[in-house]
Design goal:
Blueprint lengths: L1 H24 L3 E6 L7 H16 L3 E6 L2 H10 L6 E2 L2 E2 L3 H25 L4 E5 L6 E5 L2 E4 L5 E4 L4 E7 L1 H9 L3 E5 L1 E3 L5 E4 L1 H11 L4 E6 L17 H9 L7 H13 L4 E6 L5 H7 L5 E4 L10
Parallel strand pairs: 1-2, 1-13, 2-10, 5-10, 9-12, 13-14
Antiparallel strand pairs: 3-4, 6-9, 7-8, 11-12, 14-15
Helix pairs in contact: 3-4, 6-8, 7-8
Length: 304
């Protein structure tokens, strides 16, 4: 009997701790970039889906933006198309772009929609091409050569966001649906572009004046040189971590994306460990969380 009572008390404690966060965030938008282990491990996939559906049920408006690099790479390998990268970006010729659209807009997007719907959600999948949701332009990579002139490297159909049509998303949110977005955009001539998912998520959060931007990763969060997870960081603290190269490598683009979103008015950005079950709910609805919280001012975790 005592075990049952202890279990009930723990549940009550969790609900009590979550209540003020639910009250605070009801009616607000949370943009979640979904990828990494959380996207391939079956138990993590199910916990992610339940997290998102629960957010919607308590009155929060989640928007899911997903990647799919490993899935794209797998299909390209099956088709004997070589994958090449420049500065971490996939070189995307016309043939590769066809595969990107098939995998991101079809296989991956619809799997996530199905996952949410099987967990009693109402999800709708779109790409940035639907309703002109994401307007893009070709991304130019410039490198300085020995003559101090800029060399422009052509990496094909890789783009950057120019504008986002928020009417499409607001229509879905107002109809009680959960938007699931693949990061593909088009330019004024109708050409398609593969866009970095973190960048799209940050842009979405900024233009929607989101309460939160959440980036799921395969690490515990921003760490110091002793591998301690840092949280409750403000803009200046994050910029110092970048300047002294505490943050570098693959984490750098994610941190810069989160930083830019906060600078543009998103209340908080979270870089969280997608290897932890129910990471999204733990980060939003508990005092401790499971990752790094970034705001435009120094805060405690329980004031997020």
């Amino acid at each position: 009997m005592s075990l049952a009572i202890d279990s009930a008390k723990n549940i009550a404690k969790v609900l009590t701790e979550a209540l003020p966060y639910i009250q605070k965030f009801t009616g607000r938008t949370v943009v979640v970039k979904y990828g990494g282990n959380a996207m391939v491990d079956e138990a993590l996939k199910q916990s992610f889906a339940r997290d998102v559906v629960l957010m919607k049920l308590v009155g929060i408006n989640p928007i899911v933006l997903h990647g799919g690099g490993p899935q794209i790479g797998k299909v390209l390998e099956q088709l004997n198309i070589e994958s090449k990268f420049v500065d971490g970006l996939r070189v995307t010729d016309s043939q590769t772009m066809d595969v990107v659209e098939m995998v991101l807009g079809g296989l991956v997007n619809k799997e996530i929609v199905n996952l949410l719907n099987r967990n009693q959600g109402k999800a709708v999948g779109v790409t940035g091409k639907d309703g002109n949701l994401i307007r893009a332009r070709k991304l130019e990579i410039r490198r300085r050569d020995t003559k101090l002139t800029d060399e422009i490297i052509d990496i094909g159909h890789v783009g950057q966001v120019v504008a986002i049509n928020t009417d499409v998303l607001n229509m879905m949110i107002d109809s009680d649906f959960i938007p699931v977005i693949a990061p593909i955009g088009t330019d004024d001539e109708g050409a398609s572009y593969n866009i970095n998912a973190d960048s799209v998520a940050g842009e979405l959060a900024a233009v929607l004046n989101a309460e939160k931007l959440i980036l799921l990763t395969n690490v515990a969060g921003i760490q110091d040189r002793e591998a301690n997870v840092l949280t409750g960081l403000d803009i200046e603290q994050v910029e110092r971590l970048i300047a002294d190269k505490t943050v570098q490598g693959g984490m750098l683009p994610k941190v810069e994306c989160a930083l830019e979103a906060v600078k543009r008015g998103v209340n908080s950005a979270h870089i969280i460990d997608g290897r932890v079950e129910h990471a999204v709910l733990l980060e939003i609805f508990t005092d401790e969380g499971v990752g790094t919280l970034i705001t435009d001012h120094s805060v405690n975790k329980n004031n997020k």
